User: What shape does this take?
Amino acid sequence: MARSLTARVAAIAFGVEFVFALAIPVAYLHLFDIERGEDRAPVLAIIGALYLVRTAALVGYLASLLRPIERWLVANDSSSQPVADLTRGAARAAYDTPLLFPLVWAISWLLFYLPVTAFLRVLFADRIPLSARAGEATVLFGVSCFAAALPLSYALLSWLLGPIAGRISLSARERNLPLPGRRLSVRARLVVLSLSLITAPTAWMGVTAYMSQVWTAQRDLAARAGLLADALARELARSPERAVWEAAARARSTPLDVVAVATTDGAIVANSDATRELAAAPGLRFRLARALSRAPADAVLDPSAERALAYRGIPAGTGGAEPPAVALVISREPGRDRGGELFTLLFFALVALSWAPICAGFLAGSIAGPLGRIRAVVAQIVARGDVDRLGRIPIFHRDEVGELAQGVNEMIDRLQASAERIRRYGADREQLLAVAARRAAELDAVLDNMVEGVFACDRSGGLTHTNAAGLRLLDLSPVVAVSRATAEPATGGLQPLHPDGRPFSPAELPLVRALAGEVIVEEDEILENPSSHRPVFLRSSAAPIRDATGAVAGAVAVARDVTEVVEFDRLKDQFIRVAAHELKTPVAILKGYALTLLRTDQTLSSRSRRMLEAIDRGAERINGIVEDLVDISQAFLDALHLSPTPVDLDELVRAAVAGVRASELHRVVVRREDPGPLTVRADGARTRQALGNLLSNAVKYSPAGGTIEVVLSIDRARGEARASVRDHGVGIPAQRQGGIFRLFYRAHTDTPHDYGGMGVGLYMAKELIKRQGGRIWFESREDEGSTFSLTLPLV
Amino acid sequence: METASLMVLVVEDDPDLAALEAELLEEHGHRVEVARNGREALAVIERATPDVILLDLKMPVMNGREFADEYRRRQRSPAPIVVVTAADDAQRRAAEVGASGWIAKPFDPDALVDSVTRLLPPRPAQLDGDTAAREAGRTAPPTNARRP
Assistant: This one.
């Protein structure tokens, strides 16, 4: 394959040229009217030699231009990838050669006949007389050749090098190399082509017309010279005297015509020309001899320069034994005919007719071919939408079409890149979806194995998710739950009730309230199970689901079936009630008999009396515990029966103080900060109970004999009365203050101040005061004492 | 406090408590009949006319409420009933039964006697149930007050 490119290009290019190159010398000979075989031979020899030299030089130049491509081809054929420089050089050669080489080629045609003409002028001036205008004619002829050669050679080179340029462009593209090389637009090429197409025949016609004018003028001159020579010959034939010839020659001569008589060997015997111009005419002797040897008379001397030389033979022996003489200025009709001109015309018409379509075809192909490739690729993209298997379009020429192809290539690059991106996105998406599906499955599994029922709904309230426990709670199939859900969110059509038996209005449902933005924590509701008609106690929490902007996008509710807990609570309550009831009768017997004995039997010893008193106190303590238990049970079931009426807080406090003072050895002082009435709205017995709890704590944790202060005040701004119980006892350590109001919490457990108790008093005090619209709080410092305060609303 | 001797019917299933109540009342000069349940009490009423009935509510065979209903049905001018109960909502229960007063167990011996004697010297019928209940509640023994 090596070297085959240059050889092939050269063979085809110069092979095609050779056909036309054969025609050009014919035209040249015709143009200069070199018709005789013996004249043509040297001319053709010169042309042939020049042609060989020129072609060899051009082939050498072409080879040098194509060398980078050859090197690239060699590198490309071997397994190794051509280096970037090689590819760049090859691309430059492939794109530049079709522009550069045809120009040089055409210039060679422009200049080719100048040396031929010069050669003829210098070496064969006497044998092959050229017109005096031969120089201009040769230049014009060269222009015609140039114009004809340029598009032909460009078309040939483009056609021959386009495919390899395309291959190189693809290779460069793979390696991300920019395409080098000169750019020649289609417009410029079409302009050059048009100019050539017009210039070539025009120049040819011009040179032909020009030369025909020259020939016409020379024919006229020759005719005149012939007439003069005829007349002279006739006159001289009558008088063979040389003196007469001299006189006749002088008489015939005019300022424009030179008349002379010569012998056949070329010697001038009579001449009207003082300047001897005739005798000095180049090649005269040679031409005379040649003319006379062929035709003794009526021979023609071709015109040379601007002169027409005619000669006529004078019949010998007319006037004596003189050697035959020749009357110069003898003319004859030149041998040019219409047939020759017609031949010329036809010949060049044929050339034009064959040459122009070839050029046009190549040119059109060089434009339409790549465009067709581009069209096919675009059609493929449009038809399939699949760009992955699309090849790139080779760039044959660096022109608009090449740029279009490059643009399409870049478009395919982008399309493939974006297709790849889309594929990657797709893969990522698949993966994310798989992860999401797995997560969803995990979540479903977790949710379905939860004890709590989970309900999620969208913005409109339609259930979007209900877990297995949720469905069990609703005792419905999933389909029913979802289809009903749109109408009745979160309850599946069941009518939920408040713990007090009041039905929920739709707006009160946890999910509906959560959709309105509310957060619900542990609210109780009761559902009537439609199949078993047994109530299901639910403890529900709900919260809105917010999107990224914070808007409510849905809601989720978690409901726990607390039926067992509630039933257990009831059982416990029932147990406490029964136990309390059953305990109270024996306590009543114990207390009753003990007190009766103490009061009625005056004979009792002091020992018996102490024992009976102890029995009474023990029974009283049992009674207290029982009542605490009943209170706690009622507080938990929210069943504390409070009947608020207007009562005097002062009276309640004094009654509570009396209850405490009756049994303990402490001083209790009641102080009023405000003399106004202290009528509050409260349940008297329960408020007294709460105050009593505070007082008994104050007593319990104060040293014996300590003073306890109860301060009563009014806060008119808040509309409440306040009672503060202050002791100077052990106080509560700061770290134990947090849970002081919690049930069964005992701040002094396992300390030296642990005086026993169930941890119920403060809890009950808080519950009782809270339920009456009051507040309760405390301030305490360890070893300094505590102040517990409560408020109740003034009437 | 020594007033007229009254006929008091004690309806109480616990014999010890019934004995305590009887002893306290007899000590104050009242006559006492004891019945172990409502049915026994109805039998007593067949042969005697009590001035006051101390009625336990929770009893076997026939409970206090049933007895009260039956008693009122049979008697045109029924004697006032004082409920003696261990229930924590004694007051409400007393009202349900239509009692004139209530005493919560455990009770102060004096309060028990008072509740009977207070009812009677004026005409017991003049006291409507509510007033009687309130008065009885107010005179309830200290044991009836919540322990501090």
